[in-house]
Amino acid sequence: MSAVEEQLAATPDAFEKLGDILKNQDHLFACSGSVPIRNEPEAVPDQRPGPDEQRTSRPVTIRWDTATANSPTPEQDACVKLTLPIAPGGNGGVDRLRQHAKPATFGRGGEDVLDESYRKALKIDTDSFCSTFDPYTLGIIDTIAQVLLPSAIDSTTHRSVRAELYKLNVYSGPSGMFKSHVDTPRSTSQFGSLVVCLPLEHEGGQLKVRHKGKEMTYDWSTRQSDPNHAQIQWAAFYSDCEHEILEVTKGDRITLTYNLYAVRGAGRLTGMSKTLDPTHLPLYEAVKTAMDSPRARFDGKGGSIIFWCSHIYAYNHQSESPLPDTLKGVDAVIWEIFQSLGLQPRIAPFVSLEYELEGLQEWYDEKKIPSDGGDALRRWAAERPAPLLEGSFGVYKHPGGYLDETTHYQELYIGKDGWGGKYHNESQVWLNERPSNEELQILFTAYGNEAEAAYHYSHCGILVDVPGTSEIEAAEALAEEVKNMRIELQDTSA
User: How many Cβ atoms from other residues are within 10 Å of residue 415's Cβ?
Assistant: First the structure.
């Protein structure tokens, strides 16, 4: 049993129940849907469907340039179009689409690689084609925003989704496929991908999406004789999900891929207001009950409650941190619930000092700081080393020299010219297991028998500070004093 499991086992039932609920939140990594095709124009085209009405789409038209064809001389028609779904028995121009598409590459080691044993597909870049398909007016982006990037009513996060068209891909039978991989985010604000499968007869080509041992399969294969043939199907998932496209055995699987970005403000949503109310989530009551339990008061001494983020984030960007804007799934839900309870959560990188702690504590216990000791010692003499160190985003690189004394490490960890971290000496409750994913946080030179590069990795967590009884009483006394002053001022002005 791990340290976290031992701790949860010793806590009251409220925290045990909360821990169990959090363990079952791994399914929050993908969503999907379908949009039927209608051939008749809408009776009132400008009227928006109600919340319970099924949205439909007109047939989708794709236009592409022949000037970028693989052949040396463009065709007479500078622009060719394909409308889907096509009539039964017809080809509708799919052959010409394949002719003008290029082999699809994939990223490996920072380079674009063409290897048809790993990925066999065709592509057209966005500067060479356009489409009448719009995921905003069909409500797809609204759905993604609510499920994968939720923002609560009255939330201070104000997040929404921007979808950017990335590629048109064609996977053709009998061997089109893409082996298991994880996409490389195009920026720190990208949180996921949207794949839209257009209505065209094909078999195979199932999309499998995996996260933390859970798997979702999206089978969009269809025949023209199928009653559901004429519909658009889509799936969206987080950027840290592993996914693959199984072999297309027959026909052509045509998809549009969008990169999904978290943006501040209204973004490009279609006018839907934020409707997620965290107080109506099952997790809300579990968190509230746990926070009201005696264990959460830490015997009046104060402490910290930490939730380790379950998804992977590129949070140590040097110039900007994408968090909390790009929080995903249960991470976003926990953040919103903490906020709704007035707990003032913060998100930060945490470095574990479990291996270094023994030496630090021995030095701390034995070191005698003289009265004329100097600022370097007195500045952090009250900071007793602890196994968990909280700091700021951004990789810290030691400016030079080496570290061979505990005083140097203290300066590195918590000094104002170092990483500037903070030890967590107070009591703590961890709501979940620390994940395996981590990011480089501190880089320095250590000295043993010889100088060598050393480093610390960090994990991202959401933290809530629970004040001690004395702090609460002081805050209440100050609030009462301010209230009395206002009353006196009102009486004076009257």
Answer: 18
Taking alpha carbons only, the member of 452, 455, 236, 214 closest to residue 351 is 455
Dump pLDDT digits (tens) for 157-179.
567 889 999 999 999 999 999 99
Indicate the pTM of the whole model. 0.64
**Residues 430 and 475: beta-carbon distance below 8 Å:** no
Hey, is 478 helix, strand or coil?
A: helix
CA dihedral 482, 485, 489, 490 (to 10 degrees): 70
34's CB contacts (< 8 A; 6+ apart) are: 228, 231, 232, 233, 234
Cα-based angle 336, 332, 20 (whole degrees, multiple of 5): 95
**Residue at 266: amino acid letter:** A
| DSSP bridge pairs for 233 | 34, 197
Strands 202-204 and 190-197: what pairing?
unpaired
Cα–Cα distance measured from residue 4 to residue 434, given in angstroms and rounded to the nearest whole number: 8
* Strand, coil or helix: 167: strand
Residue 279 to residues 132, 268, 290, 333: CA-CA distances in angstroms?
39, 27, 15, 11
Class of domain 31-264: mainly beta
User: Which ranges of 24-134 does DSSP label H, i.e. alpha helix?
Assistant: 94-100
Which DSSP category does 392 fall into?
A: -
Inter-axis angle of helices 282-291 and 329-340, nearest 10 = 50
Beta-strand pair 439-447/396-397: parallel
> What is the location of CATH 2.60.120 in the chain?
31-264
C-alpha span between 493 and 421 (Å, rounded): 48
Q: Check: CB of residue 411 under 8 Å from CB of residue 417.
A: yes
First-to-final CA distance of the chain: 67
Query: Is there a contact between 325 and 313 (Cβ–Cβ < 8 Å)?
Result: no
Q: Where are the alpha helices (DSSP H) in 230-328?
A: 282-291
User: Which pLDDT tens digit goes with each residue over 356-401?
Assistant: 666 666 656 655 554 544 454 555 555 667 788 898 888 888 776 6
Element (H, E) at 9: helix 3-10
Residue 317 · residue 437 · CB < 8 Å? no
